[in-house]
Amino acid sequence: MKKRILTWIKPTDSQIHLANYFGAVKPMIDLSKEFPDAEFFLFLAIMHGLTWLHDGKAIHDNSLNVLKIYMACGVDLSKFVIYNPADVPAHAQLNWVLGCITHMGFMERMHSYKEALDKGKAKEISVGVFTYPILMAADILLYDADVVPVGQDQKQHVEYARDIAQRFNNLFWETFKLPQPYIKPEVGTIIWIDWRKMSKSYNNYIWLLDDEKQVLKRVKQIATDTKTVEEPKDPDQCNVYALCKLFLTSDEDTSLRKKYQAGWLSYKEAKDYLFEKIMAFLKPIQERYAQISDQEIIDLMKKNAVYVNELANKKIAEVYKKVGFTL
């Protein structure tokens, strides 16, 4: 049986920014090359979206647009099974079963709940936010995933899925495979403009669909030190260089480092170079994006729903039999 690798896309916004690309999209594409014989499942976390966004049109539009951008970034549709869990009733069915065997004390250790508790807002979060990890566990366990690529901040989701699966297996005999998290250590936090991580909440991001004017404005805002043009500079202490490095070949990186260390490199020159590299990276993505229609995405999801429903129904039938739901 092929190794099955599963990950997801969150339709939080209508676009994704550069940090999203290097932190989530690129590692996923690289992983498909590292494991060419594996089966990759990529699901749209649309049901999770309702926990923070109560706007049906926004969830719908965000979902389509984000999927189009992922395709434009180079996600190989011959290797990825992209699907919508809302088209697969077994996700909600398994969510209920797992919720019934999961203790409150276990759920109260969830990061988002503890943060709300610390801020005195625990009573303001929805039940969906509180039980979010159980639905995520159902999403992961339903397809017997072997590996789940995640960032460090999402590792807890896989740990919760493993713990919930183990509890079910202990109660009803072996049913679920225990997935392994896959975290690439070299994928770090991308720092931007004001020395904080690139994030929508800090308003310091570049969307992959931003035009030249928008990108140039952001690049000009990057914070630098007060060294003069003629002074040598340490590239490892410069945020402009750190961002440039994301787009450079090995030879280009070596050349730029030498310019920093030799002196007579202005920060304006460095920023202009970064701007050119960012636009050279974004333009092909934007061109591919413009060629992808909403209907193409919808047709793809409908097609893949048939395959994932077959797998999910088989697993939920096994679960229902073991918990006594099948009469």
Describe this structure in a few short sentences.
The protein has helices at 18-34, 46-49, 56-72, 90-100, 104-107, 111-118, 127-130, 132-141, 155-172, 212-220, 239-244, 250-262, 267-290, 294-323, and strands at 4-9, 39-44, 80-83, 147-149, 180-182, 191-192, 196-197. The chain has 327 residues and is mainly alpha-helical. A three-stranded parallel β-sheet has the order 1-2-3. A two-stranded parallel ribbon has the order 4-5. Strands 6-7 form a two-stranded antiparallel sheet.
Work out the count of structural domains: 2
**What strand line-up does the widest sheet have?**
1-2-3
The percentage helix is 40-55%
**N- to C-terminal distance:** 31 Å
Q: What's the number of helices?
A: 14
Q: Specify the biggest β-sheet.
A: 3 strands, parallel
- CATH architecture verdict of the largest domain: 3-Layer(aba) Sandwich
Assembly form of the protein: single chain
Kindly state the mean pLDDT as a whole number?
90
Q: Radius of gyration, rounded? A: 22 Å
Task: Supply the CATH class of the largest domain.
Answer: Alpha Beta
- How many runs of DSSP E, i.e. beta strands? 7
Give the CATH superfamily of the largest domain: HUPs
> What overall geometry do the principal axes of the alpha carbons give?
elongated
In CATH terms, what is the fold-level topology of the largest domain? Rossmann fold
**Topology order in helix (H) and strand (E) letters:** EHEHHEHHHHHEHEEEHHHHH
* SS-based class: mainly alpha
Beta-strand content estimate: 5-15%
Query: Unreliable runs, pLDDT <50, ≥5 residues?
Result: none
